[in-house]
Records
---
Amino acid sequence: MGEIAEMMLNGFYCEQCGCLIDGEETGYPRLCEDCAEEERPHKRKRNRKKAKRK
Ligand SMILES: [Zn+2]
């Protein structure tokens, strides 16, 4: 739990779903593309679940 939580805080993993984002550490928590899309009330695509990207 500790390590992953830390990596999430470093922006390595999505802070919401915990998936790998792009392999970079930003030093602050961030969201993966899927979660970021859900966060934005703006453009709402088809509601596919965040299963797999790519
Ligand atoms: Zn996510």
---
Amino acid sequence: MDKYKKNNILKQQGREGRYMAIRNLRYQGDDILKKKSREVPEEEIASEKIQSLIDDMIETMHRYNGVGLAAVQVGVLKRIVVIDLYDDHGPIVLINPVVIKTKGEQEVDEGCLSFPNEFAKVIRPAEVVAEYTDRDGKRMRVKAKELLAQVISHELDHLEGELFIDKIIPGTLEYIEPEKG
Ligand SMILES: [Zn+2]
């Protein structure tokens, strides 16, 4: 991505005209990734601090072409996850998410923004039903399958300090070098 494009992205506005910022990612080997995140009190969701964090998480996920990001990955131990499958729905924000039910299994290729260039096969549930609070403070329920079920499962693991690298199918880890230039 060239600098011109990058500058344009940095000028994008979030909710209520706030400027969004790209936050530093935490990477493999950083102890914070193994820590459990704390619930966000419902009365804090509308605060500038939490809303800005959400905007920045979405911006950071987009910058690194991720489909999901947990707050712990930008160094904040709060139970907040953002997901974007780059479809018509747009970004989904899950605060204090809880898995209600899972069904079946799928074997999937997976990576993680905290493990750049590492990919492996992992078993995830084929379907996930989860409840969460959205950024407007409404309690919501999502019934997910395929990629969305995979991403929800991966991101909710982050909130428990669990990493995909610890549950890969042995022998499937691959290192893919980024393209130069
Ligand atoms: Zn991850």
